[in-house]
Structure prediction request, 363 residues.
Amino acid sequence: MRKIFLALGMLFIFPSLIFGAHLKDLVNIEGVRGNKLIGYGIVVGLSGTGDGDQTKFTVQSVVNMLERFGIKVDRRQVKLKNAAAVMVTAELPPFVRQGQRLDVTVSSIGDAKSLQGGTLLLTPLRGPDGEVYALAQGPISLGGFSAAGAGGSVQKNHPTVGRIPAGAIVERTVPVSINQKDILRLSFREADFTTVARAADVINAYLKGSYASPLDGRTLNLKVPERYRQNVVKLLAEIGDLAVNPDVPARVVIDERTGTVVMGENVRVSKVAVAHGNLSVQIRERPRVSQPPPFSAGETVVTPETEIVAREEAARVVVIEEGVSIGELVRALNAVGATPRDLIAIFQAIKAAGALQAELIIM
Prediction:
């Protein structure tokens, strides 16, 4: 029984240790990030679906490659249909070591119809500094296909972009020193003063000292305690599992292209009355032909005849009380028969009236 009371007491004293998101899901460690790699390569082995003769850089690339193998050819005599020029991209993750493998994405940059069945030749992948960090090569997996005949064609997925799982070998690494740091900087993915302050309190309570201090609404400084010096990885592993209650801003997100409306739980509305009714206007135009009598000097005249029909449904009025929750707001809008498209117009009108206590984001 004593253990039960102790557990209940911990719920009230340290609620953030029980509920909330893990700190490691909210922040990034400054200096610990991936690096983008890119390279130019040639895919061979295509079945007549490669670049055409108008793609000059593909022909030039193949000619240069053959010359490096000691084979001299006349560029004007090279006709390629089974090769394609591609850009190869990958991401070098942090803490990667030489010899490890990376997934690469291969994308056509010429007029190739499909990379199906192709093999990427050895391609160096470079970083922004121009240095080669990985080498890519291997057969391409499209996850789809394309086929065409004289009278039609069929295609599944995108045939000019493919992947090579584990298709690149790391040759150079980016040094990242974590254990040598005395101060760590945690960067939150979403800027919020309340969330940063809560995270600092949770970390300080766990470490039993004033080690974490907020710098702004996104950044947190963390002094490495003496007992974790030269073992910062253990510190990050332990505080990464701490639970923090992130503060969710009051937002209403509207996607007008799809009619999607997403409302946060902290959205509040001041007292307001909403009247909504559908108005439909239908316009019909029919040509009316005026035919003159036979053997007369008149001419046939076509006159457009327009018919306009307007229908307006009776508007239903609903009163939304001040400070209602998201559930009550949804029930009130459903009472007037609002569709997702109607919700967009209603929320914009409520915001314009100054009654929506939330940020309105239109995508």
